[in-house]
What does this fold into?
Amino acid sequence: MKKLLLSIILCIPCHFLMCQSTFTLLISDSTDQRPADLIELSDHSYILSSFFYTSTFWESKQKFLKISSNGQIKNEMILENPDGAAMMSTMLPFNDTNIFCIGDWYTPNDKNKIWVSRIDSGFNMYWSKMYHTDYLRSNSRKALINSQNQIVSATSGATAGYFSRIFLTNFSLVGDSLKSVIDSSASGPMLFDIIEFPGNGSYLEAVDFYRTFSPGQVISIDSLLNVIYVDSIPHRVYNCITMKKATDSTYYLSGTFDSYGDGSDYAIMLLDQNNDCLKISVIGKNDTMDYSGTFQSLDFVDPNKIFLAGTSNISLSGWFSNQHSWYALSSFDSVLNLRWTKYYGGDAYYVLTNVVATKDGGAILVGTRYDYLTQNNQLDIFLVKVDENGVITNVENQQFNKYHDVIIYPNPGSNYLVIESGQQICGAQFRMISINGKEVIHTSLINRRVKINTQNLSAGTYFWEILLNDRFVESGKWIKLSN
It folds into this structure.
């Protein structure tokens, strides 16, 4: 019997036995830093591609960081353009010794160059190549390794007239340029992502402003990089940051949801090969600002554990704001049933740029952190690694190890407060108590977002708590300003 039990244990797939590490990592120095891309290596460590500058964009330098599985920086490499800016926006890992990097090499008053290189996990560079383009600056760049083992790079680049065009380029795995196509059939498009679909040498691109009949569009591209057709994205979804193939006939797409309100939401959709929506799930509410990750907002290893991430309470003022915000992470099954939503941050202004599903079943969130009280228009990079349930455990840095099932903002506030909660605590009871111990608000959290009028409350400090089935969930304090 013992031999049989041992045999059963040894047959358990290794990913079930894998320890799920969690950590938080703040990358802070005297420069303004922006994350670009993050990949996971075979030993569960990570490479972060980022860029930084001290005063202007034209001083940008490229930085690669090697980060261990428990969040320790182990190595770094800095690359710079002595005459301008250098940025690697996309990393394509073929394996640990073949990591292809695609980016841009900018020089003032000159046209942009595509920068292609191959490195390994130890930051040894095997080759680096530059190619001239017909545009001044890339607005965005995405790339993939196709089924023919070729690199396909897509970008929307600004021309001399400041109208962007879509530029597509094929490279071999030794960096040789095979084909380049300029799509000039539309003026001013913004490209977000590209996937090979359904895997036969054709591609789908998610763009905005390609045509005027819808906020967002999908462009079908053939194997020669020529446009086949343009289709509108359903439900007025745009800013379609991420596309990811589900099956040979379906794919997922995430982006901003047009709710016709005074705020913004973000959504994930499952679409078929005709770009018809099979299911949509929306995070947010139309009277507040929520936005999907600005570089990659959707990822999964197991299609039954899909991660969708964004910023909750984002500011319209951009990267630098004096309001507080949170990384928001939601988990869905393969047919987009929402499991849970959790929040991270709230002590400064956070903007989520990337989410990467990890091989241990969890996810890593990448973005920026800005504290206007201690910083002057210089961003830090902030990483959060969570387990499959969105939980952070065994983190020594107590300032950042808090995850939330619910967030309350604005705080301080005056005329209203918003309670935003995850699906996992639906039906919980919210109580707010004055400093004198009097209950002033009591409501059930039936909806994921509840807005409460607080005009009648006196200025001062209030304490709140949340209970679910008589179980304590979370507590905190809220400061009421004068109306």
Remarks:
- The two ends are 73 Å apart (CA to CA).
- Confidence is low (pLDDT under 50) at residues 1-17.
- The CA atoms of residues 171 and 421 lie 46 Å apart.
- Helices lie at 2-10, 14-17.
